[in-house]
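User: Hi! I have a protein structure encoded as tokens and I'd like to know what sequence might fold into it. I'm fairly new to this, so please keep things simple.
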């Protein structure tokens, strides 16, 4: 019987090729999109969960109270805290620390100079908590010698090709390090994407550095603690605070520690800055809903088209019942057809996923592996198959198997008003989803356009920067380094492709530095110690970046300016000086000077953040900023590279254009924009496919009515209006339903930006217009085809 069910199912699908194509194409594309989204979501939700005993591993989180209203949250903690915790807290079974390398690491392999951007120092117990698959070498050898290295497989191949990496020597500065092991690359869902690991013992080989690490005031390490099963994390955190209170007398209760579960680290959002990869839980939830909506949209097509064509199969069902088929057998027949469509759609989805994976990996910058061999992919596909099979089969099968043969042969309709209403509701649901996605696409695009075109308060066009490599100049004091930087600056200014050169703090576009304490001004309350963003600049920085002064002046080459400061507008409002701020005393870090100017607020961080108080000084400059002459970007970079090589021949020249740095701040939003656009297009395409099928069926059902109307003089426009009116109404209703949902969702998204667009009514009107236009084009295609058909053919036979 089952064989017979599938044989008949194949015949029915083959007989109605157009409807079969619409069902399989819509469902296959919807399933493929849902699978791609589910792979990304699963990757996000499983970060670090593969680690052994991940549920018992925590990271120490530091809370530093700066003022009554401001607390800094850091992922780092003092190295010495771990030393005490291991000895004094019995719940701690293992403790490990990591210190990511802040700057690019310059490596020498023979005559080659290699830049490594992802490296970190780890202590001897790191591998007791975190799992790595060793391909060559062992962790024992790594821990024996402080000047050792562990490389990932891809890094070892990049450095040494197909040669064995273990035993090879790489020079860092003047010290030779030997590769002791090679490990497999960490999976995509690991927070620790480091290509090179170095023992902390190498960092602490210098006595001064080690002594610095043993001071409580230095928060340089991420500390991970593994607790005994069922240990109370809050109680352990309290013991960590107790250790701090006992050993650091000057803390005055301003610092506390908490423990963050390892599995929650990926979605941590309140840190001032972080060295590990973080995700956005809200965006993950959005895409979970999006995947479900795409799958539901695809399934709606099958339900709509199957129930719409029920009347065409009514006689078949009635004859089957008369000759003895019971309802269960008929139910099985239609469920077999649903299963067949779902299985074929699954293989189409798998093909589309395979074709899309190269782009998807590149776009998301995640290595998902081959989906065909991934158990999670087959779990997702299997679940999707089951869900789509049930959604697509249950209602149509129950409806078609419930016909009463006597009603069919008496000429009564097999469908009642409730069935027609359900199809309308489903079409409205499809286009509601489509309109919501169109609104989201337009609003995200408008916000990104706003970001690209907002005046940040400075000019970043044709400006690139690079950092001064203090680490390559041993035993150089601050005064000599400044003199050296000035020499390099003057040489850079002589290059013909360069129009201006200045020195300033690094990472000007995304400035995360904060400093608190040691500031004073007239009238400051004793308990008021706000944090400032400290920016070091030289006298040429304002003109190069085209900063605007509200009042006062910029720095000159007057030696007195080394003690003076410039504040931004936000800082002036914050400190609430009485009278004109220009000329008033200002102490910063025991250096007494005066406020000589107020610079207009500029965006030195992402637009997600409010402009904060900034303190500008003529000191501590660590970066060069070069503005190129028009059309000479490449020549200016090459010229700066030659100057760099003259002074730092052993270090690669690493630079960045400010436009690129600015765009990187919004990379996540740009990816969201592309993905939402792609999936909105898929949802609209699937909805249009379903609409095309329903329009074709409607035209088929009304073929004689259309013929009669044409004979009586109806125009093509009249026929098109007849067939299109219901669908246009449904799209309009869908738009009205979609608007409040889209407004709520996009309002929430825009609230993540401190500076954002307003939600204008025309964005919603345009979205509805797009959906209506697509629906009209889809329906009109079939309506015009029916309207221009020869009425003689439709009226010739009964």
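Assistant: Happy to help. Inverse folding works backwards from shape to sequence: for each of the 798 positions I chose a residue that suits the local structure. Here it is:
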């Amino acid at each position: 019987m089952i064989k017979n069910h599938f044989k008949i199912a194949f015949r029915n699908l083959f007989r109605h090729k157009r409807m079969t194509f619409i069902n399989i194409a819509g469902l296959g594309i919807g399933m493929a999109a849902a699978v791609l989204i589910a792979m990304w979501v699963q990757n996000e939700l499983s970060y670090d969960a593969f680690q052994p005993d991940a549920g018992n591993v925590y990271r120490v989180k530091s809370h530093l109270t700066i003022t009554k209203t401001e607390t800094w949250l850091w992922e780092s903690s003092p190295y010495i805290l771990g030393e005490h915790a291991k000895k004094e807290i019995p719940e701690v079974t293992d403790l490990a620390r990591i210190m990511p390398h802040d700057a690019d690491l310059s490596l020498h392999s023979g005559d080659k100079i290699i830049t490594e951007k992802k490296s970190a120092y780890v202590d001897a117990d790191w591998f007791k908590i975190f799992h790595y698959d060793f391909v060559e070498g062992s962790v024992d050898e790594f821990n024996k010698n402080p000047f050792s290295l562990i490389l990932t497989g891809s890094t070892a191949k990049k450095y040494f090709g197909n040669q064995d990496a273990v035993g090879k020597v790489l020079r860092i500065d003047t010290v030779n390090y030997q590769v002791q092991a090679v490990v497999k690359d960490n999976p995509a869902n690991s927070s620790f994407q480091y290509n090179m690991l170095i023992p902390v013992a190498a960092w602490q080989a210098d006595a001064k550095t080690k002594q610095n690490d043993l001071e409580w005031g230095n928060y340089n390490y991420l500390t991970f603690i593994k607790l005994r099963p069922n240990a109370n994390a809050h109680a352990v955190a309290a013991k960590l605070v107790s250790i701090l209170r006992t050993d650091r007398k000057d803390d005055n209760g301003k610092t506390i520690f908490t423990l963050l579960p390892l599995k929650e680290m990926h979605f941590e959002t309140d840190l001032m800055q972080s060295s590990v990869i973080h995700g956005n839980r809200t965006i993950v939830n959005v895409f979970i809903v999006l995947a479900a909506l795409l799958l539901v949209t695809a399934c709606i097509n099958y339900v709509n088209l199957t129930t719409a064509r029920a009347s065409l199969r009514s006689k078949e069902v009635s004859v089957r019942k008369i000759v003895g088929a019971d309802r269960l057998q008929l139910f099985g027949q239609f469920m077999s057809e649903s299963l067949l469509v779902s299985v074929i759609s699954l293989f189409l989805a798998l093909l589309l996923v395979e074709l899309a994976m190269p782009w998807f990996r590149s776009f998301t910058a995640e290595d998902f592996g081959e989906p065909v061999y991934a158990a999670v992919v087959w779990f997702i596909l299997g679940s999707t198959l089951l869900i789509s099979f049930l959604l697509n089969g249950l209602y149509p099968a129950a409806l078609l198997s419930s016909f009463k043969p006597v009603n069919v042969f008496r000429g009564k309709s097999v469908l009642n008003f409730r069935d027609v209403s359900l199809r309308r509701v489903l079409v409205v649901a499809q286009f509601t989803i489509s309109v919501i996605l169109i609104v989201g696409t337009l609003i995200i695009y408008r916000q990104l356009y706003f970001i690209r075109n907002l005046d940040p308060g400075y000019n970043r066009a044709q400006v690139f920067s690079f950092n001064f490599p203090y680490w390559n100049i041993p035993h150089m004091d601050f005064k000599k380094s400044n003199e050296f930087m000035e020499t390099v600056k003057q040489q850079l200014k002589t290059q013909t492709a360069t129009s201006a050169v200045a020195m300033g703090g690094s990472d000007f576009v995304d400035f995360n530095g904060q400093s608190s304490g040691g500031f004073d001004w007239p009238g400051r309350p004793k308990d008021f110690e706000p944090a400032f963003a400290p920016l070091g600049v030289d006298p040429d920085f304002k003109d190069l970046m085209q900063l605007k002064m509200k009042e006062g002046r910029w720095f000159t080459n007057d030696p007195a300016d080394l003690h003076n400061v410039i504040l931004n507008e936000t800082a002036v409002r914050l400190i609430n000086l009485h009278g004109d701020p220009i000329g008033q005393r200002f102490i910063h870090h025991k250096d007494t000077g005066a406020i000589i100017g107020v610079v207009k607020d500029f965006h030195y961080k992402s637009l997600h953040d409010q402009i904060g108080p900034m303190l500008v000084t003529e000191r501590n400059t660590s970066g060069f900023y070069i503005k190129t002459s028009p059309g000479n970007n490449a020549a200016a970079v090459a010229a700066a590279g030659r100057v760099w090589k003259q002074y730092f021949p052993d270090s690669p020249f690493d630079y960045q254009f400010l436009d690129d740095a600015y765009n990187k701040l919004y990379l996540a939003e740009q990816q969201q924009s592309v993905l939402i656009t792609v999936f909105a297009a898929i949802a609209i395409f699937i909805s249009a496919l379903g609409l095309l099928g329903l329009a074709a069926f409607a035209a088929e059902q009304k073929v004689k009515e259309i013929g009669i109307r044409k004979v009586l003089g109806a125009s093509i426009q009249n026929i098109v209006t007849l067939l299109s009116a219901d669908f246009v109404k449904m799209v309009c209703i869908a738009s009205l339903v979609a608007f409040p949902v889209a407004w709520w969702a996009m309002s929430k998204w825009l609230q993540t930006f401190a500076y954002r667009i307003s939600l204008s009514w025309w964005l919603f009107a345009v979205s509805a217009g797009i959906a209506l236009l697509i629906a009209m084009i889809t329906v009109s295609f079939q309506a015009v085809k029916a309207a221009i058909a020869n009425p003689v053919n439709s009226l010739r036979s009964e």
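A useful reference point when you look it over: The first strand starts at residue 57 and ends at 65. Feel free to ask if any position seems puzzling.
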